[in-house]
Amino acid sequence: SKPSKRLPLPPGSLGIPIVGQSLIFLRQLKANTADKWFEERAKKYGPISKLSLFGKPTVFIHGQAANKFVFTSDSSTISNQQVASVRAILGERNITELSGEDHKRVRDALVSFLKPECLKQYIEKMDAEVRRHIDMHWEGHQKVTVRQMSPIYNRGLQATTRIRNIVIDLMREKRVELEQKGASISHQDLITCLLSIGQKNNKEGMFEDEIVHNVVTIMIAGHDTSSVLLTFIIRLLANDPTICASVVQEQEKIAKSKASGEWLTWEDLAKMKYTWKVALETLRIVPPVFGGFRKAMKDIEYGGYLIPKRWQIFWVKSMTHMDGDIFQDPSKYDPMRFENQASIPPYCFIPFGAGPRICPGYEFARIETLVTIHYLVTRFTWKLYCTDNGFSRDPTAIPAQGLPIQIVPKKILQK
Ligand code: HEM
Description:
Blueprint: H1 22-30, H2 34-45, E1 48-53, E2 56-61, H3 64-72, E3 78-80, H4 84-90, H5 100-114, H6 116-119, H7 123-137, E4 143-145, H8 153-181, H9 190-197, H10 208-239, H11 241-256, H12 266-270, H13 273-285, E5 291-296, E6 300-302, E7 305-307, E8 312-316, H14 318-321, H15 362-379, E9 380-384, E10 391-393, E11 397-399, E12 404-409
Parallel strand pairs: 2-8
Antiparallel strand pairs: 1-2, 3-5, 4-12, 5-8, 6-7, 9-12, 10-11
Helix pairs in contact: 4-8, 5-9, 7-15, 8-9, 8-10, 10-13, 10-15, 11-13, 11-15
The site of protoporphyrin IX containing FE (HEM) has 25 residues, from helix 5, helix 10 and helix 15.
C-alpha cells in the first residue's frame, strides 16, 4: 500500500542549500573520521536520518535491517544510483546504472566470464602476471611504494576517453578473430567472451556501447578494490608478526609442494584457508567500498518515516562491520572470526554487498589476492618505511604516504 504523505520525514537537517553536508562528509572521509561521524549521527538521530549530499536530499540508514532493505528491495522500489562524477567515468550503460531486465541481461553476460568454472582457466595467466609484476617492480629494489595516490578527477576523466577508444579498437580486432576462429576462443578474454554471446532480441548479450562501458567498469571496479585489499594486507603483515608467521607458514608449505616454476592451481588456492581469513578480516576493518547510494523510485515507508520518491538513500558498511554486538571487540584484528562464517548474521558482513547486485568479481578478487600474497610472502620480508600508520579515503582507502615499505628478498626455498 502507498505510504501516507502525512508520515513524518526522518529527523536531521538538510543543511545549507545545494552544499548541504557534502563538504563536511568529504572532509571526514579524507581525515578517515567518517566512521565516527556516521556513529555520532546514528546516536543522535537513530536508525534513519536525513541530510543532503552532493546536491540531493538523502536519507542515511544503517544496521542489519537497513542493509537487507537496500540489497533486496526490487528495482521498482529502490534503484541503483551513482554520483554524477562516477557515472561520467564509467559511462551511462555501465552495469551499476542499469536496472530490471537490462541489469539482468548485462550481469548474466559478465558473470559468464567471471564465474568460477571459467576463472579456473585464468589462474595461470594471473600467476604469470603477478610474477611479472614482482620481477619488474620488487626484485632488485630495497623500497617499494605499495599504493600510489589516485589520479585527480579531471585526469581520470580524460583518460576514460582514451581507454574507451582503446577498448573500441580491441573490440573490432577481437570480432574479426572470433569470426575467423569460431567459438573455441570465446573464453580467451573478457571482450571476446562478451562479443561471443551476441545480441539477440534484447534478451541476451550486450550492445557495443554496453561492452565498452562495462569493460571500463570492470577495470575500475576490479582494480580500485583489490589493490586496496592487497595494500592493507601488506600493511597488516608488517604490523602483526603473529598473523604474518601463520600466513608465511601456510604459503611456504604450498610452495614446498611445487616444482620450481610450476603455476599455482585451483587446488593450491583451496589450501590457502588462513590467508583468505586474513583477507576477510581486512575487508571487515577496511572495506575498499565503504558504502553506496541508491534512489527511492517511489514514496517508501521506512521505520515509521517517509522516504520521498527521488530521494537518495545512503548506506555504509562500518555500522555493522564495527558493531560490537555482531563482531566482539570489533577493533581487534582477528582472522579466526571467519573460522565459522555461517555464525555471522546475514547482511552484517557485506564487503561485496549482497542480493542481486552482490559483487560478481568476488572469485576473481579471491584468486588475485591469494596468488599475489603467495608470491610476496614466499619471496620477501618487509617492514613499513613510514612513520604514519593512518589512511584517508578518496573515496577508496589510501595509506599515508602511499605505504612505502622496505623489502628484503628471501633465500630461495630449499625443497
Ligand atoms: C576486494 C575486491 C572487491 C570488493 C571489496 C568489491 C566490492 C563490491 C561491492 C560492495 C559491490 C556492490 C555495490 C552495491 O551493491 O552497490 C560491487 C559490485 C561490482 N563489482 Fe566488485 N568488488 C571487488 C572486486 C571486483 C572485481 C575483481 C571485479 C571484476 C573483475 C568487480 C566487479 C564488480 C561489478 C561489475 C559490480 C557491479 C555489479 C552489479 O551492479 O550488479 N569487483 N563490488
